[in-house]
Design goal:
Blueprint lengths: L3 H8 L1 H16 L4 H9 L4 H13 L6 H14 L1 H17 L7 H5 L2 H17 L3 H15 L1 E3 L4 E2 L4 E2 L5 E3 L4 E2 L4 E2 L4 E3 L11 E2 L4 E2 L4 E3 L3 E2 L4 E2 L4 E2 L7 E4 L4 E5 L5 H4 L11
Parallel strand pairs: 1-4, 2-5, 3-6, 4-7, 5-8, 6-9, 7-10, 8-11, 9-12, 10-13, 12-14
Antiparallel strand pairs: 14-15
Helix pairs in contact: 1-2, 2-3, 4-5, 5-6, 6-8, 8-9
Length: about 270
Amino acid sequence: MATPQAQLAELDPVWHRIREEAETAIAAEPLMGGAMHSGILHHGSFERALAYRLSLKLASDEMGAQILREIVDAAYDAEPELVASARADLVATYERDPACHRFLQPLMYFKGYQAVQCYRLGHWLWQEGRTDLAYFVQMRVSETFGVDIHPAARIGRGVMIDHAHSVVIGETAVVGDNVSMLHSVTLGGTGKEEQDRHPKIDDGVLIGAGAKVLGNIRVGHCSRIAAGSVVLTDVPPCTTVAGVPARIVGEAGCAQPSVSMDQILKGETPE
């Protein structure tokens, strides 16, 4: 009969690997034993460990960690897609971020990953009609992580926000699957209009640090937005745009820019 460890490795390889990495971390740095046990080894599943982590980050004098833990647990029990997306985001971070060497790092340390999972909780609450609680989660994410994502925004799976400081995503923004963005990115509006006013980011897009994408425009799949660019018009698929305002400077350079994370402009010139 297979051991419990072997069974876990077969049924849930991501969680099994995180637990193994936690044990290794304790052996290398015993002072991390308490954090690794309370954050990972004490829990029976990935989603329970994640719920514990998010509840600690969102807790404040106004709402304690225990009630927040119950809210997150209830969300994960009611909507398995939240957990599936969290796993996809974790693997995406591991595969794309050169500073990420272990699966446990996003779960324990990376505020971009944690902020996105808190957004996903707020989005679920928003869809359930619990708007005040969703706004509370948005507020705490902004205060804790420096990331402001409206709970009504729609974000797909396999999303990585590296560093994540000062990221802003507006109410009617849509972000597809397998998108990568860096710090200080804004997906914003252009005025006081109240209808559909934010960008639509298709699958596989890479958005460089400090880029601003403004208005109800579409950024086509597998395109690149260079760091510091201000995008005010639609971006065709599989292209690279750069500048203020942004202009097409060439092709995307690869099939999946968000995975390769190649941000170097190689001799492109504006069209």
